[in-house]
Amino acid sequence: MKTAAKKPAAKAKKQAAPAAKKKPVAAQAKTKALTKTKAKTRTAAKKQPAAAARKPAAARKPAPRADYGAPIDGFFARQPQHLRPILEALRALVEEVVPEAAASLKWGMPMYTLNDAMLCGLGGHKSHVNLILAGPPGTFDDPEERLIGEGKTGKHLKLTTLDELPHESVRGWLRAAAARVRG
C-alpha cells in the first residue's frame, strides 16, 4: 500500500513542478526585452569600425621595458662566449670614432645616440652579431656590399666571427652616421 500512495504523490509533484518554474507574463516580457537589447548591442558593435571599438592609442601603449635606458654593461655580460669578442670590438670602435655618443639599452640592446638622435646599435643574437646603422639609403658607402637591408631607416652588418669585422669600413660608416646626426 505504501507504494501505491507514493506513486500518485510523485506524479502530482512532476505535474506541479513545470507550472512552478513558469515565469509570470511580466517577467517573460522583461526577459525578452533584455535579450533584444543585448542582440542590438552586439549588432551595433559589429557594425562599428575596428578603430572605434578599440581603446585610444594612449590607453593601448605598452609599458616601457624594465631595462629601457639602463647601462649597457649588463648586455655584454649576458652574451654567449663566442659572440662577446665581436660585440666588445664593435663597442670599442663606436667609442673610438664617436666618443661623445651616449649609450643605453633600448629594445633590449645597446643603442648609441648623438644629440638625442639614433647613431647605431649592437644586436646580439644566438649565432651572430649585428651592427645596426641608422640613416636613409645612400648614407653609407659600401662598395663591397657588406651592409644588409633595404629599409628607409638604416642598414646592418651581420657578423659571425671576429675575423669578418671590417675595421676601416666600420669606422667610415660610424663617421658617416655621426655626420648625418650632426647635420
Give an overview in words.
α6 packs across α7 (167-182). The radius of gyration is 34 Å and the shape is elongated. A hairpin with a 2-residue loop joins β2 (109-114) and β3. The chain is 47% helix and 17% strand. It has 2 domains: 15-60; 73-182, Aspartate Aminotransferase, domain 1. The longest helix is centred in the N-terminal third of the chain and has 23 residues, at 25-47. The chain has helices at 2-21, 25-47, 50-53, 57-60, 73-77, 84-97, 167-182; strands at 102-106, 109-114, 117-124, 129-134, 154-159. It starts with a helix and ends with a helix. With 183 residues, the chain is of the alpha+beta class. It has a 5-stranded antiparallel sheet. It has 7 helices and 5 strands.
Find the CATH topology of the largest domain.
Aspartate Aminotransferase, domain 1
Rg is: 34 Å
Mean pLDDT: 81
- Low-pLDDT ranges: none
CATH C-level class of the largest domain: Alpha Beta
Indicate the proportion of strand residues. 15-25%
Number of helices: 7
Task: Work out the count of structural domains.
Answer: 2
The shape, in one word, is: elongated
State the helical fraction.
40-55%
Biggest beta sheet attributes: 5 strands, antiparallel
Q: Report strand order across the widest sheet.
A: 1-2-3-4-5
Order of helices and strands: HHHHHHEEEEEH
Care to count the β-strands?
5
